[in-house]
Amino acid sequence: METPPSPSLSNTPRPRLARTSLVSPQNTITEPQMPVSIKQEEEEDRHPVTETIDLFDQGYESSVDAPVTAAADLRLELEQEKRSYPGASTWADEEEKLFEILFQRADIPLLPAHWHVDFRGIPVVDSIFSAGDGVPSIIYSRSMKKEFQATMALIRLIDLTSSVRTTVQSGLRKKATQLIKRCIDKYIAWAAEDGGYSHLKIVPNITTAVMDAELGEKDITSTMKNRMRALAMAQREFLRVDRDDSFWDVSEVEGGEKGADFSTLIVEKYLKRVEELSESAKAPSRNGSRQGTPRPGSPSRDDTTPTRRRSPPSPISNGLTPDEQQSTRGQIKYRYKPPVVYGLFILRTSVFLLTVDSAKGDSAYVSFHVDMHFMDRHQSVWNALTAAIAVCLARDQLSERTDEFEELSASAEESESEA
Fold first, then answer.
1. Range of the domain at 359
2. Bias category Polar residues: which stretches (predicted)?
3. How many domains, in total, are found in the chain?
C-alpha cells in the first residue's frame, strides 16, 4: 500500500460538518498540525468579503436537504474515521467521546427538549433537541433555576459569527480575534457559574488564546502544543500526592498579562516551565550532548528560595527515552488520574479545538479535533454548538471536583470579576 504523504497545514483532516462525511485523514503524523492554511487566511486578508450581511443570519443551512444516514451505517463510518484519525489510538475516553459527539452532532441530542422554545427564531435542525426532558443532552444547564442564562449564553455564541463578519467587513479585521476570544471567555465564565465553581480557586481544564498570525506555521503549532502541555502539567502537579507547597504561587507571572485572572496565571506559570524545558532540551552541553531536563518548578542555581524535597516530577518527554519516562512516571502517585484538558485557539477568524490527556505526561499526543470558521454565515449555529460542546464537557468534569478547591480570597474574586 502506498505510503501517504506527510501532513501539512492544508491537508490535516477535519471532523465532518453535520450530515456530511469526514475528509479522509492521513495515517501517519509525527506532531499535531494545524487544520487550516495560513496562506488561505492571508488571501482572505487581501480579498475581504464584500457580500452584504443578512440582518437575520440564516445560520446553518448548507446540508439540510442531505440524506440522513442510517444509524448502523453512521456508526460504521464513525469507527472507520476514528481508526484513520491521527492520534486516535492514544485517546483517553473523554477524547474519544468528544470525537464521537462532533462526528454525530447533527444526529444526536445536543440540547434539552424544552430549549426548543427559546430557539424558535433561530433556524436549527430539530434533531439537535432531545426527544424529551428525560433524555440526557450535551449542552444544558446544571441548575434548573438558571435555564434562561444558559440559553442566552448560547445565543450570544450563535450571534458571534454575524458580529465577526460585521467587524471584518467594517475594515476592523484585527479586532475580530479579540471579539471571538471575549465571547468564548464569557461562555466559559457562564459555565463556571453554572457548574458551581466560579467562586473557587480552580486549576483550569480549558484554555483560550489568540495566536499571532505573523508567526510561521511551525511556530503557531508549537505555541498551541506548549500551551496544551502547560495546562496538562498544571493538572498533574496539582493532583500529585506530594504537591509542592509553592503550587499556588503565581507571583513570577503576575503582571505579565494585563487583567489576567487566577486561572490564566496558573496556565502562564506552567507555560513558562514548558518553554524552559523545551529550550534546555535543545541546548547542547559543553561536551556536545543535550543537557539534562530540569524538573518543573525547579529553581535556578542562583535561586536562594528554599524548597522542600520531594519525589521526581511528572515525566517530561524531552531528553528521556520511553522506558525512562515510564520508569519515572511509575514513581509518581496522584490522588486520582489526571484528566483530559481542552484548548480553543483563535487564529484570525478561525478557532481550533484541541485536547490532550494529561495522564500521559508530556509525551501525550496533542489532538486537533476541528476548526470553526466565524466568517462563514452558514455555520453560525454549528460554530456555537461546537465550542459549547467542548466548554460543557470541561464544565461537567470540573463540577465533579469542586470539593478539591478552596474559596477564592476576596481580592482574587474581585480580580476575577474585573477580568
1. 73-284+311-418
2. 21-31, 316-330
3. 1
Grid cell digits, residue 187: 461562555
Of 313, 364, 371, 315, which is closest to residue 340 (Cα–Cα)?
A: 364
Query: Do the beta carbons of residue 24 and residue 30 sit within 8 Å?
Result: no
**pLDDT (0 to 100) of residue 70:** 62
Tens of pLDDT, residues 317-359 = 444 444 444 545 568 899 999 999 999 999 999 999 999 999 9
Cα distance between residue 276 and residue 93, in whole Å: 31
**pTM, entire model:** 0.76
Residue 409 confidence class, pLDDT cut points 50, 70, 90? confident
Count of C-beta atoms within a 10 Å radius of residue 259: 8
Cα-based distances in Å from 184 to 82, 174, 262, 268, 358: 28, 17, 17, 19, 23
Q: Give the torsion sign (CA, 65, 71, 75, 76).
A: negative
Alpha helices in 19-107 (DSSP H): 38-46, 71-84, 93-103
pLDDT tier at 298, thresholds 50, 70, 90: very low
Residue 31 within a domain: no
Give the bridge partners for 372, in sequence order.
351
193 within some domain: yes
At 246, is the secondary structure helix, strand, or coil? coil
CA proximity to 357, closest of 104, 84, 96, 138: 96
Q: What is each CA distance from 314 to 158, 241, 269, 275, 325, in whole angstroms?
A: 39, 12, 16, 15, 9
In a domain, 280, yes or no: yes
Q: How far apart are CA 100 and CA 160, in angstroms?
A: 25
Sign of CA dihedral 250, 364, 202, 159: positive
Residue 67 belongs to some domain of the structure: no
386 CB-near residues (< 8 Å, 6+ apart): 102, 105, 353, 370, 372
User: How many other C-beta atoms lie within 10 A of the C-beta of residue 196?
Assistant: 14
For residues 225 and 32, the answer to whether their CB atoms sit within 8 Å is yes
